[in-house]
Records
---
Amino acid sequence: MPNIAVYIEQSGGAAKKVAWQMTAEARRLVDRTGGEVWAVVLGDAACAAEAGRQGAHRVFTAADDAFARYDAETWTRALAAFVATRRPDLLLVGATAVGKDFAPRLAARLDAACVSDCIGLDYDGGFRLRRPIFAGKCYAEVAVEAPVAVAGVRPNAFPLFAGGGVDAPVEAFDPGLGGFAPHAAVVETVTSAEKKIELTEAEVIVSGGRGLKEAANYQLIETLASTMGAAAGASRAIVDAGWVPHSHQVGQTGKTVSPKLYVAVGISGAIQHLAGMSSSKCIVAINKDPNAPIFKAADYGIAADLFEVVPALDAAIRTLD
Ligand SMILES: Cc1cc2nc3c(=O)[nH]c(=O)nc-3n(C[C@H](O)[C@H](O)[C@H](O)COP(=O)(O)OP(=O)(O)OC[C@H]3O[C@@H](n4cnc5c(N)ncnc54)[C@H](O)[C@@H]3O)c2cc1C
């Protein structure tokens, strides 16, 4: 009966959505196989009370001044101490900037299997994890053979828990940081001035590409995104052209997203762009070239001029309430 630990990453005192998505998927699995889901919270434990309602059976918290600011060595040490003492069979970590940073280091420290960017989780006597490979062209099913594994999970791969969880007992653990000083320290964290919806967390994304013709026309994307309560993304072509910051870029060298709805506007659908968004639940493409590759990935396609379609779409959505 496997026990699955879930690292609850926080931002501004609240758990990231991916943390609860992982908790929910782990719970759905252990409800079939037996075993428990353990939420692991480092630092601010305000979100610990919610873990049970999100599907966790137990919550483990560790307090230390060192958790005030993220650094890979501290997080690795603390989570390694947790795994060594509690011995979960699998530790799930969000495939966020933070999770991607420390997960391989943690796996190496534990001599554990490391599987990144997972979008599926199963168990048949050993864990089987599903992940996209070759820039999303196909999927690999990875069988874990090591006694313990660290797996990165793509945000929005799993729905939240709908099972009506209950309060879970909270227990403190020793992160083993006594006398520990990391070799490198984060001295300052600068938050983007933009108060936009974070791409990797968004349920709806509207992205624009070179079909927009010029930087000023990105406003069309921002307006439609705002009307839809969506995040605004971009292809690399317009990031390289300096129209929008790199934080908007979706793709192989940008962000990986899995929203419920991805609207690609004036984007051709290069493999490197698809690598970042092909696991979206529903893809809508607007492109004037009916042979553009994006239409092969799309669930719905509008082969027309974006300068006509986008304002019309925006106006139509505004009439809905
Ligand atoms: C190593 C490497 C990494 C990369 N990483 C990324 C990445 O992370 N993300 C990424 O996006 N790209 C990445 N790229 C670049 C990628 O190969 C493409 O060049 C890029 O995605 C193209 O961007 P685009 O679709 O906006 O532009 P284009 O390919 O120029 O496509 C523009 C599209 O707009 C359409 N269009 C034009 N006018 C209109 C109109 N009026 N109405 C409707 N449609 C119109 C055209 O038909 C065309 O399909 C990478 C490339 C390499 C080599």
---
Amino acid sequence: MAYLIGLIIGLIIYSIVFGFITEYVAESKGYDGGFWWGFWLGIIGLLVVGFRPDNRQEYRPSSSAELPAWASSSSSSSSSSSGWTCTCGAKNPSSIDYCLSCRRSKSDAVMPKKICPHCGAGNRSTNSLCFACDKPLDEGE
Ligand SMILES: [Zn+2]
Ligand SMILES: [Zn+2]
């Protein structure tokens, strides 16, 4: 009697072990319920599950969808060409609004002003006559 109980317990443990093995194999292939194949059929169930075709959908790993490293840093190298040149000759990045060399503000440097020697009004450098007093800007005193 003890021998029979031991045999049954041994068979149950054997079935459960094979059940877990076939469940693991079945789940790795995309199937559900692989446990009972191994539980009832043992090594035969394992072979049945093991020789099944792979049921998983075509799975693309998400890492390949990420952008390559060079794509994210491509904009940093092209920023040097979009700067502005000060009247002093220094080239400044477009993100800074004053000259790094002479500290003039960007609006003054790009379009320098001429101060009228007669009335002190700030004129565009292209003006030859003061817009306020109509006197020639280049003429001192
Ligand atoms: Zn400057
Ligand atoms: Zn003037």
